[in-house]
Amino acid sequence: MDLQIRNFIPPFGLIDLLDVLIVALVLYKLYDMIKDTRAVTLLKGLLVVLVMALVSNWLHLNVLYWLMGKTLTVVAVALPVVFQPELRRALEHIGRGRFFSKSKRLNDEEMSQLFKDLTKTAVALSKTRTGALIVVERETGLNDYAESGIRIDGVVSTELLLNCFVVNTPLHDGALIIRGNRILAAGCLLPLTERSGLDKELGTRHRAAIGLTEQTDAIVIVVSEETGVISLALGGRLERRLDSSSLQSRLEELFAPKAQGLSDYINRRNGRQ
Fold this sequence. Notes:
The chain has helices at 2-8, 14-34, 39-58, 62-82, 84-96, 108-127, 143-146, 158-164, 204-215, 244-255, 262-272, and strands at 132-136, 150-155, 175-179, 182-188, 219-223, 230-234, 237-239. It is an alpha+beta fold. It has two domains: 2-96, no CATH class; 108-272, 3-Layer(aba) Sandwich (YojJ-like (1). It has a seven-stranded mixed beta sheet, with helices on both faces. The longest helix is centred in the N-terminal third of the chain and has 21 residues, at 14-34. The protein is elongated and about 70 Å long. The chain starts with a helix and ends with a helix.
């Protein structure tokens, strides 16, 4: 009996253990490279399709299994196109020999200071009617958009934020992206919303803010160059005419550890309208 078991189970030595560890490390690094991009959401969808294919095969649901198989075939062909930015970034990382870096969550004091800096900046820009587009990253990574701008990687402060939006400078017209308490990049390009029927007085900045929040869970602070009005975009919706206290309270609510999340917040807002 023991001999049969030994014949059934192949030997597992140090080389096999090393092989498994190397594969695990490679997979972990690949995940780390794409975890701050939209590719993670696409991979989750691919995983769902794969699980459905396995379950349908196990339950002998032939039609569903055939459909999932065809879907996986199409996805396999489309993957190089869909993940082109991520594949290019992965090859660049391998070529440069760069290892992944860890990001840390902000504590309460750091979050409070971030909200104060964002609020003070928005109010100061509003008074001078200086247009601004400030993106605060949440769960969905924004590396794809950050690559379209100029990397900064500086700690957030009111002075640095204001300096990024000085008129007639290279960073003024684009969006500024914040991750944690650091400015990831400035002068970034954002996707414009394709929604029709928006207020005609909404300019390109507002449409870009709505467009980004339609595709990600980011929060975008917009300061109008024409009117100085402060707006907050989230979930594809735009809250306008915020003042200092209302803007800071919105940020605290959306980033509070015990908050119910962006989707619940939007549902509550929709229920009140």
